[in-house]
Design a protein that fits this description.
Layout (H helix, E strand, L loop, with lengths): L1 H16 L12 H20 L3 E4 L2 E4 L1 E4 L4 E4 L2 E3 L4 H22 L2 H5 L2 H17 L2 H9 L4 H26 L5 H9 L5 H21 L1 H7 L2 H4 L10 E4 L11 H4 L20 H13 L6 E4 L1 H4 L12 H23 L3 E7 L6 E2 L4 E12 L5 E8 L5 E3 L3 E4 L4 E11 L7 E10 L6 E9 L3
Antiparallel strand pairs: 1-2, 3-4, 4-5, 6-7, 8-10, 9-10, 10-14, 11-13, 11-15, 12-14, 15-16
Helix pairs in contact: 2-5, 3-15, 5-7, 5-9, 7-9
């Protein structure tokens, strides 16, 4: 009996797929509402973030900007340099660990609610529905012969898609080239090769992925869908069909609303993105026929088998491991961020002359100090030298640096040439900020005294 039912369902699903590309039926419910809340939230941040301004030291700049030309990343009041790449690595590890934790707890929630592919596919599908009609009207239009109406509707749809894809590309590039400079450049056809390439590439990428590829990305291109199973166990809650209940009326609405076109009643499938739309649709049907909701719901294999829910961390080892790693990496990120130096110094000896002897009998060595002020405020630095008796700096020893700037300064260091010491002796430079006594760096070097 179950085998014959499965064959009928498979035939219906195959017939549904043969109608052309998937046009999911619109539904309403708590999961659909949550998905649109996340769409609005993420896109307000993405499209609006590049327009935010930040004032620093009397100057106004873009609040979020990857300034590749000057090797800086501005994040409101925080300025990161290439030397802070470790912070980016930790953030990426945190994001991956958080994704693994969510997957172990509730399946592919990220895919169904926050993945950029899902978000932009929803937006593009919404535009398509507004132009061409509901899912039945779109299916009918696909199957209809070419006509003036079909050309008009398709032209409007693809035109709107291209406009959205272009604005998405402009917003993306606007995080690397200040958006207020980028727009006039585009209007005047005066963009550089770098901006031009990414504007075209990102617009085309968005148009193809969200408008044309759609569910094919989740079904065939996304690597995450292939290895997600290794993070599941019998306590992972995912969208599931409760086979123990006999309330299904075989209406097929769960298939019609699925953005990837699968039948959730066939069990867990890698194409399922855990969007919960089939839950919303099925609950609506259950309410109409007077049956309890939850025939399709977020449930674990353990729960569907009638066993009690897992209690505590011991019964959920994967969740415990991922949560522990998340805490460790978060702590490491906080420690690294608080300990990041705001002054970097590189000491280089003058290779042109090892040493020189003055008329007074003193030995001099020349150095170049590269000072990097990582603070977005002007600072004055003093230089001290230690390590040998009578060691001193000849000439200027205080230097001013502009906000977020690098300056190379030349120093001459002198020591007595009385012959008590000879050869190469270790010394150290101490560079400190006058505005902040705690901001100091000690760099080791060497001093040549001759024989």
């Amino acid at each position: 009996m179950n085998q014959s039912v499965s064959k009928v369902r498979a035939a219906k699903l195959e017939l549904y797929r043969k109608k052309g590309k998937i046009h999911a039926k619109a539904t309403s419910g708590r999961f659909n509402t949550l998905r649109w809340v996340i769409v609005w939230l993420t896109q307000i941040i993405f499209y609006g973030g590049c327009w935010l301004s930040w004032e620093s030291n009397g100057l106004t700049r873009q609040a979020v900007l990857f300034d590749i030309a000057h090797e800086k990343f501005y994040l409101f009041g925080l300025v990161l340099w290439p030397q802070d790449a470790l912070l980016l690595a930790i953030v990426l590890i945190l994001a991956a660990t958080g994704l693994f934790l969510v997957t172990a707890m509730a399946g592919r929630l990220f895919c169904g609610f926050a993945c950029p592919q899902t978000v932009y596919t929803m937006i593009f599908s919404w535009i398509e529905a507004k132009v061409e009609g509901d899912h039945l009207a779109r299916l009918k239009l696909d199957q209809s012969p070419l006509s003036g109406r079909k050309i008009l509707l398709r032209s409007i749809k693809h035109g709107l898609w291209l406009v959205l894809a272009a604005w998405t590309a402009i917003s993306f590039v606007g995080y690397f080239t200040p958006i207020r400079q980028l727009l006039p450049s585009i209007l005047n056809w005066d963009v550089g090769p770098w901006e031009g390439f990414w504007l075209i590439f990102y617009a085309a990428f968005t148009y193809v992925q969200a408008g044309l590829a759609r569910e094919a990305v989740c079904q065939h291109m996304c690597p995450y869908s292939r290895f997600q199973g290794v993070m599941f166990d019998d306590t992972t809650a995912s969208v599931s069909y409760d086979q123990q209940r006999s309330d299904c009326i075989d209406c097929g609405i769960c298939v019609q609303v699925c953005p990837t076109g699968i039948d959730i009643r066939d069990g867990l499938q890698y194409q399922c993105i855990n969007c919960g739309l089939c839950v919303d649709a099925c609950d609506e049907v259950m309410l109409k026929i007077g049956s309890p909701t939850g025939l399709i719901r977020f449930a674990s294999e353990r729960e569907l088998a009638g066993r009690p829910k897992a209690q505590g961390w011991r019964e959920r080892p994967r969740v415990a491991v991922y949560a522990g790693l998340l805490v460790i990496f978060a702590g490491f990120l906080a420690l690294t961020a608080t300990k990041r130096p705001l002054l970097l110094v590189d000491v280089l000896r003058d290779r042109g002359a090892l040493l020189r002897e003055t008329a007074e009998g003193r030995i001099e060595n020349a150095y170049t100090l590269k000072l990097m002020n990582l603070v977005e405020a002007p600072r004055d630095f003093t230089v001290e030298v230690n390590g040998l008796p009578g060691l001193e700096i000849v000439g200027e020893r205080e230097f001013a640096l502009e906000p977020g700037s690098i300056r190379a300064v030349s120093l001459t260091v002198s020591a007595p040439g009385d012959g008590t010491l000879g050869g190469i002796q270790p010394i150290s430079f101490r560079i400190a900020a006058r505005q902040d006594a705690a901001a100091s760096v000690v760099e080791k070097s060497s001093f040549a005294l001759g024989r």
